[in-house]
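Dear colleagues,

As part of the handover before I leave the project, I'm documenting each prediction I ran so the next person doesn't have to rerun anything. This entry is a single chain, and its sequence is reproduced below.
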Amino acid sequence: MSYQEILYDVTGGVLTITLNRPEKLNAFTRTMRTEMIDALDRADADDDVRTIIVTGAGRGFCAGADLSSGGDTFNAEARDDRADGLNRDGGGLLTLRIFECKKPIIAAINGPAVGVGVTMTLPMDIRLAADVARFGFVFARRGIVPEACSSYFLPRVVGISQALEWTYSGRVFDAAEALAGGLVRSVHPKDELLGAARAIAHDIAAETSAVSVAMIRQMMWKMLGADHPMEAHKIDSRGIYHLGRSADAKEGVESFLEKRAAVFPGKVSTDMPEFFPWWDEREFE
């Protein structure tokens, strides 16, 4: 697929996906959604991609849904480009794909991130913000509700009380408040943001087993819904058993004992343990 609204660049094991509608503050469209999902599919299939950074072109990260359709922007019954009746939420299709991704994802939020512009980052693993970034869960001010599975992700990221305050009010807030509320890991001068994100990404790419990281990502996210630590114990035990027999585990120990950098041979495309994925497939109802 050739991309019209995102940029796709792989350097040194790090894929950078750049939302690329700078003249519209990278407002979210169906085309952007389709292209981002395709980019994640490509990344999962490419063993040269170890980590992913998502950022925005120009002065914005993503200003939310493109509202150029006017008052009927969210009304499927009045839109020629949508089927009548219940439609799956487009932001949710993207965040569900992010949730299933095998590669770590870092959001480098370089400017305004409002509506789906912020909710799309919630299933990403690490969020960094520029000091000029602003955030807003503005749905109640648009007469709709939070989307992109954010009623699942947001309370898990920042806690229920903070999630409700931000979504009840719909107000826009700055990077300092996002940091204090636990939405972002750190705040950086805008010209240093990508460098900080790349430092984290390159550290993961250079020092770790790709198979281990893919397993860790899914173990952590999937266990958020577990009702007892025994569920984690079951997966931990299977993971230790299967990965413990792998070439990566052998290399990890031997490189440590020999005081040298590890060179892990395992590939996500071919060497995931036989029980992966262990969770149930659930169809949309």
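The longest strand covers residues 6-11. The beta strands are 6-11, 14-19, 51-56, 105-109, 113-114, 126-130, 134-136, 172-174, 186-188.

All the best with the project,
I.
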